[in-house]
Amino acid sequence: MDPSRYYSLLLALVFAVAAGLVGSFAFMKRMLLASDVISHLALPGLGIAFLLKIDPVAGGAATLLLGAFLIWRLQLHTGLSSDTTIGVVFAASLAIGAAITPSEDLLEALFGASHKLSLSGFVLGLTVAAFVIFSIVRLKSQLVLSIFSPELAAATGVKVSRLDLYFLFFFSLTVLLGLRFTGALLGSALLIVPAATAHQLTTKMSQFAAVSCLVSVFSVAAGWSLNSLVFRSTTPSPTIIIVSTVLFGLSLLKRA
Amino acid sequence: MPNSVLSVSNLCVSFGSRTVIHGLSFKLEQGDCLAVIGPNGSGKSVLLKALLHLLPSPSEIRGEIHWSESARLGYVPQRVAPDRQLPLRVKDLLEAKVRFLQLSATDVERVASETGLTGELLDTRLGILSGGQFQKVLIAFALLGDPNVLMFDEPTASLDELTEERIYESLHSLQKDRGLTVILVSHDLSVVYRYADMVLCLSKVRLCMGPPREILTPQLLEELYSAPAKYYKHVQQHLDH
To answer: Are A206 and B97 an interchain contact pair (Cβ–Cβ within 8 Å)?
Structure first.
């Protein structure tokens, strides 16, 4: 395997750690489905990037972060529920993305691809992943307080609205990290499924995030290998997600 | 003259065109226990949230709320409904507050022993606690950070009488031991009679404040509640026994 393929795989594994960690808090905040929708916000940006022949991740990043900010502002100033605001922005993103993405690039935009990764892209990805992991660990106590009760958290001194924005931002960054090989449709699957699996396997907060990360890393490693050796598809993400859902299925046996 | 812990002056709270609290003024000294009573919708919970600066953004607050510089606030809300599936134990929650406020790690053990939280309870998931256990956890949570003012918003709503009795007894001894200032919202007039030094009555028709036996007259209760005279007698009988 040439070095650029190693970079892609290594970055995918680091992304898996960030996804497992962020996913465990998204699970506790009961925003996993909402989060799934947020990853679709990258679609218009991917479409524009394909049209302009620029790096798809840059395009996806622009519209995903813009969309996430728009959702936060709409919730804050209109009083609409998060379901409503996310639903409206999601529908608009999907429609715009599907309309402008060239048909030959649509599959990659939706499901990603295992492109070669440059050293600079790899270093940038690692930096973003380290930033996300460090920030979530640092904000862990505030997140726990606001998950338990936003009102009590605010009474304790947590700036809850700002914390929500930060979490949305870190969530979006994590989706962006994986966007290159997961695409917009499966962008948040690795945040959802490993966290759900971890919840079946543990009841302790300290173990919950760790198990979620482990399941996520195993899914990427096993899915990537299976795809390279057996399916040889240009998009490894479907195999990765299938592995993670099989693990979820197995975890159900523990509680059966 | 002692310095006031809290001084509220001409407080008005509105939500759009609806004014919930209109022109409220009062003062509290260290160690006072103030009970806030009034019918549903009279603004009791709104007052506590205004004092804690927790009201949502569409609300409008006018007037002045001044806490003394030494005031450290603890708050037990009316209702917290955590997700039953949360993988959070009692200890995880208390430790999160300790870490956020950079308190001593031994504070969790200290408040656990003060509030009767056993080691087994500390290791229990929040989602499976009974109502009484959950209230104890909320009180322990409020006590972290060594507050000298505690605010309770109907802390025993939905609990059985025996559990309610135990919780108020433990609150009362905490107040006496630590010299805490307490602001207590309650519908239970026997609790108000027993524990409060002062009563603040909120209603759309009038605002009044004073010692329980002077303020809680059958006439005033008739203005506040629907079956007052009967209720007043019941409370008196209960207290006489």
So the answer is: no
Rounded Cα gap, residues A205 and A211, in angstroms: 10
| A172, A164 contact by CB (below 8 A) | no
Say what the pLDDT of residue A208 is.
92
> In the predicted model, is pLDDT for residue A82 greater than 90?
no
Pairing of strands B59-67, B4-15: antiparallel
| Mean pLDDT, chain B, integer | 82
pTM score: 0.82
Q: How many domains does chain A have?
A: 1
Written as six digits, the tokens of B194 are 């027993």
Tell me the pLDDT tens digit for each residue of B47-100.
988 898 888 766 788 888 999 888 889 898 877 877 777 888 999 999 999 999
Distance separating the N- and C-terminal Cα atoms of chain A: 42
Collapse the DSSP code of B10 into the 3-class scheme (helix H, G, I; strand E, B; otherwise coil) and give the result. strand
The three-state secondary structure class of A139 is coil
Lowest mean pLDDT among B132-146, B181-195, B224-238: B224-238
CATH assignment of the domain containing A236: 1.10.3470.10
pLDDT band at A204 (very low <50, low <70, confident <90, very high): confident
- The B181-185 sheet, strands edge to edge: B73-76, B149-153, B181-185, B33-37, B198-202, B207-210
Instruction: Choose among B70, B71, B33, B37: nearest CA to B51.
Output: B71
- Give backbone dihedrals phi and psi of B40, rounded to 5 degrees, phi first: -55, 140
Contact A148 B86 (CB under 8 A): yes
The proportion of chain A whose per-residue pLDDT surpasses 70, expressed as a percent, equals 88
Instruction: Collect all residues of chain A within an 8 Å Cβ-Cβ radius of residue B141.
Output: 152
- CATH superfamily of the domain spanning B32-42+72-197+204-240: P-loop containing nucleotide triphosphate hydrolases (3.40.50.300)
Whether residue A202 lies within 8 A of chain B, CB to CB, comes out as yes
Give the residue carrying structure tokens 């509220």: B8
Suggest the residue from B92, B143, B153 to mutate for an interface test with chain A (most A CBs closer than 10 A): B92
Q: Which pair of tokens denotes residue A151?
A: 């009102």
User: Are B89 and A205 an interchain contact pair (Cβ–Cβ within 8 Å)?
Assistant: yes
Select from B73, B77, B93 the Cβ nearest to the Cβ of A144.
B93
Residues 76-115 of B with CB under 8 A from A: 77, 80, 82-83, 85-89, 92-93, 95-97, 99-101
- Residue A103 lies in domain: 3-255
- Please indicate whether residue A186 or residue A137 has the higher confidence score (pLDDT): A137
